[in-house]
Design brief:
single chain, eight-stranded antiparallel β-barrel, about 10% helix, about 200 residues, Porin, disordered N terminus, mainly beta
Length: about 200
Amino acid sequence: MHIRLVACAALTLSVAVPAVAADLTYETPPAPSAGQVSSAYDWSGFYLGAQGGYSWSQATILGSDQDIDSGTSGLHAGYNFQSGNIVYGIENDFNYNFEKNDNANLEWDASGRARVGYAWDRTLFFATAGVAAGGGKVDIPAAGKKDGILIGWTAGGGIEHAVTDNILVRAEYRHSDFGNKDFGSTIGEVGATQDKVLFGTSYKF
């Protein structure tokens, strides 16, 4: 009797379990929408842009220092390479300075620099350094007028953000030391330094 009951129970379970399993349906989770899928931004490539800001410059003429602070604006161009989160490349820029000093002016400055930074998706933190040149102009009534190009170094850093795949915005600080140049026997050596804050935008091709 007990054997028959066990056999009946086993037979019932063998029929019921597949039936219940057949009623259970597995729903595949929906694929994430395009807005839910995030991908790292690619910083590599050529870019071209413009910048403007303010410079705190100082010229040394006839042994005395003169402040030649002013607004500044210019153009930049460069190329980035990317390896993981590390972005590195080269950049050149040229800036016109608007200062109007009676005795001395740093009319323009330019640089050729290396850049290296860390990319956090669309935001890049970078450092930069390289060669800098400045167009100096001296006009001293007792010593005469003289133009010359001073060559030195520049270094700084900043932050850049990709607003879209092609439009980049940046903020940057740089210090430049343009060295000294002999402007002739009546003027002697002229030196210039500069601290500059720039804000710019670029188009990445």
